[in-house]
Amino acid sequence: MKIVHVASELFPYVKTGGLADAVGALSSTLADLEHEVAVFVPGYRSVIDHPLTSAAKRTLKLRIEMGDTFMSGEVRSFSLKPNLTVHLVCREEFFDRRAPYGTPERDYEDNHHRFIFFCKGVVETLRFLEFRADVVHSHDWQCGLLPLLLRHAEQRYEATLAMKTIFTIHNIAFQGVFPMRSFYRTNLPDELMGIDGVEFYGQMSMMKAGILFADRVTTVSPRYAREIQTPEFGCGLDGVVGTRGTDIVGLINGIDTDIWNPAKDALIPANYSVSDFTGKAACRADLLKRNGFDPKFAGPVVGMVCRLTEQKGIDLVLANEAFFLTENVRFIVLGTGEKRFEEELRKLSALAPDRVALCSRHDEAMSHLVEAGSDFFLMPSRFEPCGLNQMYSQVYGTVPLVTRVGGLADTVTDIDATPETGTGITFPPTVAGVAEGLKRMVKLHADPMRLKIAQTNGMKRDFSWLTAARAYEQLYDNAL
Ligand code: ADP
Ligand code: GLC
């Protein structure tokens, strides 16, 4: 098949979260399965400056209609490996900036223009390069308008650009809602400004466009596919999602086992596997030492790696601060995000510097060390479309402590409910739920036999992208 992926992030060139990992690994695995794959991503500064993109060559000059004006740009392309080409849609005014979406204080004010331009750049490239895709698969709100823009261009130029369009929701909490007065920049017909089009409470919603107009809509776990059809998790789009009925499916992401594999991970001080855990002790000692703790500490070591946002349940952790102040545990948090959470966590670590450490930076190597060196990995998300770290934890023999939501519930089996096959501890997304989970963690740590069973079960789980990519292959086949 000829498959096109379109996303606002792509590992290793630009990443703010799991979206980058998912698009990078899925497109690469589909290429390994002999499909002809093209991936489009904006030519952000970090991507252009990345050593791996230095071979990119200009393949197209762009002149994009944006309402009543035209804007120029260009497409640079390079081949990443057999069957996989990456196209960068460039325009300095829009993408030569420090971060993809905004400053720590606020989103860029022209994000709608930036991503309308990006999507139109993709359409123009497909048109001029005559790629004739079987499937154009776009991800999250930044690419939500793509199915509409594609079909509109096909009518206008009497061309076939794509047989089918697929739209994946990685997180319905981010919707790309902008003033309706910007709609004219899309050059789409006015009737799409209504309730049956992109209108969302008087504004334009790019996420809604993707959900309504793609041929198939997917999200990243079966449970989240059900959750987003309820008011509690749908963020106002539950009704819209519901209209797609059986066109909505939830497919669990995989993990990149070349990068996340304790047996060959180059970012940790010692390697280990399910048959020989020795190296894990060295990782644990190194993690403790690097965070200012005694490397010989014998109690539970709890790690956390995430964006510091409400989604990740940071407030649920903070409401349980008494646990971290009184229990003999070591708690290591690696994360950046909202200032209020960073400050509260910093206060907690100042109150208990001998127990709690905060690394407030983005640090790929430290994220691997936290996964490898912790005994437990805390992920108390209020909602979680899929989540990657709970899968990394399991294959690193680190027992995940997770809330029973979305992909967390779909990928972690509770060791108390299912003692023989369990891999982690699951609890409700509440303050009391997290308290219960932490209490059960202390009990599990005191029972080395059960702890070992949970670790071993986790390490034997297969989360490889091959399984996930095959599921997408099947979905594309069915759509076609
Ligand atoms: P989300 O996409 O909602 O942030 P995921 O669990 O899908 O959540 O993916 C998060 C990804 O970002 C993981 O690969 C995780 O290791 C990484 N990550 C988050 N914060 C940091 C950080 N401060 N340093 C390094 N990696 C991080
Ligand atoms: C989003 C979700 C996360 C998911 C990731 C990749 O960022 O918050 O749960 O794992 O996308 O699909």
Features:
single chain; 480 residues; alpha/beta; Rossmann fold; 2 domains; nine-stranded mixed beta sheet; six-stranded parallel beta sheet; 37% helix; binds adenosine-5'-diphosphate; binds alpha-D-glucopyranose
Q: Hetero groups bound?
A: adenosine-5'-diphosphate, alpha-D-glucopyranose
At CATH level 3, the topology of the largest domain is Rossmann fold
CATH architecture of the largest domain: 3-Layer(aba) Sandwich
Radius of gyration: 23 Å
Report the CATH superfamily of the largest domain: Glycogen Phosphorylase B
Oligomer: single chain
Helix content: 25-40%
- Would you identify the regions where 5 or more consecutive residues have pLDDT less than 50? none
Summarize the structure in short:
By secondary structure, the chain is α/β, with parallel strands linked by helices.
Describe the protein's architecture and organization.
- This protein is α/β, with parallel strands linked by helices and 480 residues long.
- The chain has two domains: 2-254 and 466-479, Glycogen Phosphorylase B (Rossmann fold); 279-461, Rossmann fold (3-Layer(aba) Sandwich).
- 37% of the residues lie in helices and 22% in strands.
- It contains 19 helices and 18 strands.
- The protein has helices at 18-32, 45-48, 92-95, 111-128, 146-157, 206-213, 222-227, 231-234, 238-243, 278-290, 314-318, 321-326, 339-351, 364-373, 389-395, 406-411, 431-445, 448-459, 465-479, and strands at residues 2-6, 36-42, 57-66, 69-81, 84-90, 133-139, 162-169, 177-179, 199-200, 203-205, 216-219, 248-250, 301-308, 330-337, 356-359, 376-379, 399-403, 425-427.
- It has a nine-stranded mixed beta sheet, with helices on both faces.
- It is globular, with a radius of gyration of 23 Å.
- The termini are close together.
- The mean pLDDT is 96.
- The structure holds adenosine-5'-diphosphate and alpha-D-glucopyranose.
- The site of alpha-D-glucopyranose has 14 residues, from helix 1.
